[in-house]
Amino acid sequence: MKILDVGCGINKHPGSIGIDRNAATRADIVADLDHFPFPVRDGAFDQVRAIHVIEHVADVIKTMEEFHRVLKPGGRVILATPHYTDFSSFCDPTHRWHLNSFSFRYFGTDNAGFGYYSQARFREISVRVKLLAFWRYLGFEFLVNAFPRFRRFWEYYLCFVVRGKVIEFEFERA
């Protein structure tokens, strides 16, 4: 399996090809992640990993389109980002975006009615929200992840009290 680890930093995923803008990392390819296209072939990868990267890019939509371009049909995108109610989302001055568990619906089949923003399509495989430890121990994390309607209710009404920590997404290139 060919894996592209976008924004790999010093913790490049084992066996992957790393791309990062910083030459002092373990990147195999040094490139500006806000400049498209990335210096890789179309459809070259089975998986793209972007762990705590998407919140740093200048344009989330163009970055997702680039992930779509470099993936083979049926390839997977693995994303992790802070939930916008987590302190870490705002304490890092390099974070440009503060996202929630519904932020990538533009790329789905129903595209929230805004399909004209991008032609890139991904099928949602999973969305997992990690909550602060106190709420996890009380069972809220289980409820948020086990029941999509409860996750929506939590995002709309409860997330500023029962705060999120990290969101992990997995998408398949359509």
What is the CATH architecture term?
3-Layer(aba) Sandwich
What gross morphology would you assign?
globular
- Classified by CATH, the class is Alpha Beta
Nearest-angstrom radius of gyration? 16 Å
Described by strand count, sense and barrel closure, the largest sheet is: 7 strands, mixed
Total beta strands: 7
What's the mean pLDDT score? Answer: 95
Q: How many helix segments?
A: 5
Q: Order of strands side by side in the largest beta sheet?
A: 3-2-1-4-5-7-6
Helix and strand run: EEEEHEHEHHHE
Backbone structural class:
alpha/beta
Helical residue percent band: 10-25%
Distance between the termini: 18 Å
Task: Give me the CATH superfamily.
Answer: Vaccinia Virus protein VP39
Q: Give the low-pLDDT segments.
A: none
Find the CATH topology.
Rossmann fold
What count of domains describes the coordinates? 1
- Beta-strand residue percentage: 25-35%
